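Anyone? Bumping this.
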Amino acid sequence: MTAALAGKIIAILYLITLLVIGFWSSRRIKSREDYFVASRQLSPILMGIAFFTAVCGVWSYIGAGGVAYGYGIPEWISFITWISAVAWVAFLLLPAIVSRASKYKSTSFTGCIRDMHGGGYSLTAITSVVVVCGYIMGFVGSLKGVGVTLAPILGIDTNTALLIGGIVIVLYAIMGGLRAVVWTDVAGLVFMVISFFAVIWMIQSQGGIAELTNRINAFNPKLFAPDSGSPYGSTIFRLWVLFPILYIFYQCLPHQWHYYMSVGLGKRPKSGAALFTLLAICSVCMIPYLIFLAMGGHVMLPGVLADADSVMPMLFQTYAPAVIYILFTIGVFTAIITTIDGGLLTVAACIDEMLVPLYNKYGLGTTKSVRWGRVVMVIIWAFAMFWAWRSPPAFLVQYLVIGWFGMSAIFAAPTVFALWKPGTKWGAFTSILVGLIVMVVLVVTGKIGPWGIGWLEQPLIAMCFCVPTYYIASAIDRKVRPALAT
Amino acid sequence: MKKSTIANIIVVVWGIVIILIGAKNIVLTLYYCFPGWVVVCVVAYYLCRKEEQEEEAKEVASK
């Protein structure tokens, strides 16, 4: 049997497995809570693995390697600081997040913010709109990635692969909700772990970490000691400060928050949080090794690559056996779909939250409201599929990262800060609105007054506006409506 | 001091140590970052688990 045929069979079996998991999960759904948060019954171990695969997206496998090949150490700083931030939030804040979400029976990111601030449809609406706008470009870019990675494995054209991959993703997510998303993430773990160990094996085959470091240094010392933090438009020193701060608040990105609030910690929240943290950070810990290997691409591959993003596939193609290269490609495909499915469910849950008043008005029971939740998911998916089909979104990566960092900055106050000292619903509404306006102005102009700023500073500046606004507006709200103060 | 507080301190301090080592030496980080986090999380789990068991035992005894 050839490696190509083996790859085809593995990929087809994997796609079938995803559908079977979706079908199996669908039989256990009886309510909206079952569908969107699996009734918070999934163990910290399962959720940790799911979080592991969800945060380890295509950027981690392909994009980060490309940036590391092109610019060296700045991308390394990004992931090293990410590890600490994931651990701090997952370990220290997880019990508080789960406790709030359980107390209010929240089934969505939007619902969680609304319930933590005492209700309010305007807050539900603005949160959901920001979430949809922030994610839709991410879905388009990721779905395009599904087509690009699946096409060579199945030996078909990109758009057909996009159609097949896209339909499988939406089918299992529609059928099984969070339970299906989590179990498919667990199934995909196999390929991601194989890819990681292949990376370690390649580093060892080059004489180990120390030896490869010496060779990279001899080739170009600037890769380890650059003058600036390109491509992030900042200095190296600022990156070491900016990244840890941004990554702490990056954890309030809606789909990550959705995972956090769905963990079934039961009666042992602290030890559960430790288990979740252990598994969650494994993903982020893997990436520095990939980045290091990508930097080694300069001495391991002949000549200079025209497309830096091809460095990881090229390294696997050159150094790993054909089967491992195919498994790596399936691993990349897995990394993409594990990010899309969680995101799709999160966005559908947020929009569904907006429709709850309608469900109540027309007296729809639990079964019918779940059905409408599924319809919402299909509409979002169809829109993203259509866009991905029509346009190659190569320009999206930077805007995707700005959008996601931006979104986490906008939501920092009503999530992380609210855990510490909650404001009022109008405080939350105002801070999200102000954050949105500041973020749009910064992205469009790239400036505050006459000063140009790097794109990593943009979300941080938006957050500097949002957080004081949250507390000032809440204080005013409490003055105007004294009942709130009590 | 409560065991969970000690676990919190360990996790936070190790996060800072990783960043400091990362800024200084890429080789040291690759050798210690991943294995280090596994050890830190296992220790944190053990401490939290022990505290929770003690609290559960106290609850049972008080009943």
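Late reply, but here is one note on the structure posted above: The longest strand of chain A covers residues 447-448.
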